[in-house]
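Deliverable D5.2: sample structural annotation.
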Amino acid sequence: MDKYLIKYKNKKFEISADTLASKDLIKIAENQYHIIHNNHSTKIKILNSDLQNGKIDAEINGKKFSYYIENHLQQKINELGFQTKHNNLENEIKAPMPGIVLSVDVQLNDTVTKGQNLIKLEAMKMENIIKSPKEGIIKILNIRPQDKVEKNQILMEIE
């Protein structure tokens, strides 16, 4: 059974796919829904959805809200302290977890493309590839193979 964690401000709600399927939910137009729950009628309009980052902006009965949604896998990853999201606007590439640098696939002043492999990091006996979140030039390189790194340590900067 798929369970989702919905976060709004400081509140958290858990809902399962089965529970959602059991509700009287009707699609009335593109990105617009009507749901009846506990004899209450609710109109929902999805204004924006960024599923990669788990953010949903919606209008519910005329009021605007922003929610964050995590599936079961995202919840487990967050519990373990790993990062699943990259901010494309940041220049700093940070270690998502403690580990040992196995290889550095770029050099200072190299031009990189979005998605290009930058670093191979071993953590918990697994190899993890850190990829570039954006296009740019490697301006600072703080690591080399066999270095031990800590979570959130700045590994390099892309400008």
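Annotation notes: Residues 84-89 have pLDDT under 50 and may be disordered. The chain has two domains: 3-73, 86-158.
The annotation will be released with the project's public dataset once the embargo ends.
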